[in-house]
Amino acid sequence: MIARGLTAHSGLLLFGLLMLYPVLWMMSSSFKTEATIFSSPGLWPTDFTFDNYAKGWSAFEPGFGTFFANSFLITALSIIGNLVSCSLAAFAFARLEFRFKRTLFALMLLTIMIPIHAIAVPQYLLFTQLGWVNTVLPLVVPKFLATDAFFVFLMTQFMRNLPRELDDAAKIDGCGFFSIFWRIILPLLLPAIATTAIFTFIWTWNDFFTPLLYLNDPAAYTVPLGLRAFQDSSGDSSWGALFAMSTLAIGPVLGFFILCQRFLINGIATTGLKA
Predict the structure, then answer these.
(1) Which terminus of the chain has fewer Cβ atoms in its 10 Å neighbourhood, N or C?
(2) What is the C-alpha to C-alpha distance for residues 244 and 259, in angstroms, rounded to an integer?
(3) Which residues, in sequence order, are CB contacts of 98 under 8 Å at separation 6+?
């Protein structure tokens, strides 16, 4: 039994290292000179240098500092928007009674199956008429309107597992719907809130298509757009600087996940699947 467990864990460890090898190679290459990145494929740099980081950070105008600031701003606003709007929408579906609730909930779930590319053109035309192109508004405002149906579903299922006797006790004490949500439901919703925040951070930080669609000014670029700028029209890239900035780009995602992984696992494990 012990031998079988050791074999299984060893296999998983080797598989994990295999999956991590491209990331480790990228991080290693960020400390190599341009000439040795592909000629010396080993993980340990033979000519250790930090020049790629200095070169990549100031490779463009206004620079990667601005790109990181833009990404943090958009990501922070997206997290706030999803937490506020999705939790309120979920509270309505899970705790309130109104006409066509099941129908609206089903329609909301159907929107998960609609690919973003199918609605990109009408959305772009709408935001163009509003004058929002080349601003952060098309990237942020929809988050405050509960457009991410997955998070609404996640929070709804979590709330349905909370005993309704809590609501009844709060009503006896004179609480209205908003007071029940704020004082009773929201504190118990922490695992689902953390899960929503983590996924929103990762998806928004790594999003390339939406910023590419709406942001034209380099001063408004996010980190993914900045990384794409390393490749010129001929397909050539400054690989050392690209790998250096890519290594910095995965840092916030990795750090945020490590800090919040306990809440993520708890949130997924305690979220029911009943309809």
Answers:
(1) N
(2) 23
(3) 92
Neighbouring-strand partners of residue 231: 237
Question: For residue 8, which amino acid is it?
Answer: A
pLDDT per position as a tens digit, 202-240: 999 999 999 999 999 989 999 999 988 887 644 556 788
Residues 6+ apart with CB under 8 A from 215: 134, 221, 222, 225
Where in the chain does DSSP place strands (E)? none
Question: What dihedral angle (degrees, nearest 10) is formed by the CA atoms of 270, 206, 66, 131?
Answer: -100
The rounded distance, in Å, linking the Cα atoms of 273 and 275 is 6
Instruction: List the beta strands (DSSP E) in 134-197.
Output: none
Q: Report which residue type is found at 134.
A: N
Q: Which two tokens stand for residue 232?
A: 């010129």
The angle at the Cα of 84, spanning 198 to 203, to the nearest 5 degrees, equals: 30
87, 193 contact by CB (below 8 A): yes
Question: Do residues 142 and 255 touch, judged by C-beta distance below 8 A?
Answer: no
pTM for the model stands at 0.86
- Identify residue 19 by its one-letter amino acid code: M
Cα pseudo-dihedral 206, 210, 214, 218, rounded to 10: 20
Looking at residues 106-134, what average pLDDT do you find? 91
Cis peptide before 187 (omega within 30 of 0): no
- H and E: helices and strands count for the chain: 14, 0
3-state helix, strand, coil in the chain (%, to 5): 70, 0, 25
- Locate tokens 């780009």: which residue? 249
